[in-house]
Amino acid sequence: MSTKIRKIKLTPIHVPFNKVVRETMKDGEGGLGMAIRAEEDWLGGDFVICEIEDTEGNVGCSEAFVWLPETGISPEGIITIIKKLLHKYIVNQPLDISKINHRMDLNLARNEVAKGLIDLACYDLLGKNQNKRVSELFTDSLVERIPLAALVPLADIEKMVELAETFKAMGYKAIRYKLGHSIDNDVEITEALRNALGLDYHLRVDYNQAYSPEEAIKAINAIEPYNIGYAEQPVAKDDFLGMVKVQKNVKIPIMAHESFFSVNDFKALYKLGAVRVLGINSERPGGITRAIEVIDYAQSENIDTVIH
After folding, report:
1. Which of 1, 51, 228, 239 could form a disulfide with 9 if both were Cys (CB 3.0 to 4.6 A apart)?
2. Are 58 and 52 in contact, with CB atoms under 8 Å apart?
3. For 232-282, what is the HEC assignment?
4. Which run of H or of E encompasses 9?
5. Cβ 35 vs Cβ 154: under 8 Å
6. What is the pLDDT of residues 199-229, one digit of tens each?
């Protein structure tokens, strides 16, 4: 390849939540709108914007969202890793995404968010070079729209129902809502949402590591009658065996989020019997290359995939 990468620009950005979100979060569980046991403030979205420019003047862009209690790294941490450790394997090198990923993996363990940020920007740059959308680099059979689920924070039931009904009116076909205050409260919320949204509306729940494995089994079985699509991260992120115990004792499919950063994380969780749904986003498992790899794996095992 004649085109080489000339420079990388990295910019941290904080996007404050608007007034409605701030008030909802403030009134919600733990001031965060979810049951995660974190003391770190969450006042808005923290991102790193990556711009990679090649010798032809084309620029590929990407972004990564981070929050310390979940991703374990800050925007400044990502920028430091890329500038001090990954920079030399990217700048003045050909735009060979496979080789860039290989060298990043050889020289830096884990850190999928930082490496995925580079991967995403490289694909955007490759698309600019070929005058194609990134999706056209992989297939001519394009999907113009991917349905997403709206997110309802853990708050008082009336507020959660109001938000869910608003999202439904906006055209959302599914919601992912937060649970984990208590099993009784979980059931009350779920019943209220199901009654408000109808029997056929898609409901997904997210526990944010709220329960022990034993509690999670009771909690998930308690909401099973309400036709739940999947239950996300019911136990602590590092309790893989606890996830196994839960999935073996409930019918609702379990999805990992805080437990899942790499392709091998997901493969291990699946092989252990801990999960039956794959949920991905831009930073997990890290860029387009890894996303395609894990989606292909899930498809080969007949596992459903959702955009988290």
Report:
1. 51
2. no
3. ECCCCCCCHHHHHHHHHCCCCCEECCCCCCCHHHHHHHHHHCCCCEEEEEC
4. strand 5-16
5. yes
6. 999 999 999 999 999 999 999 999 999 999 9
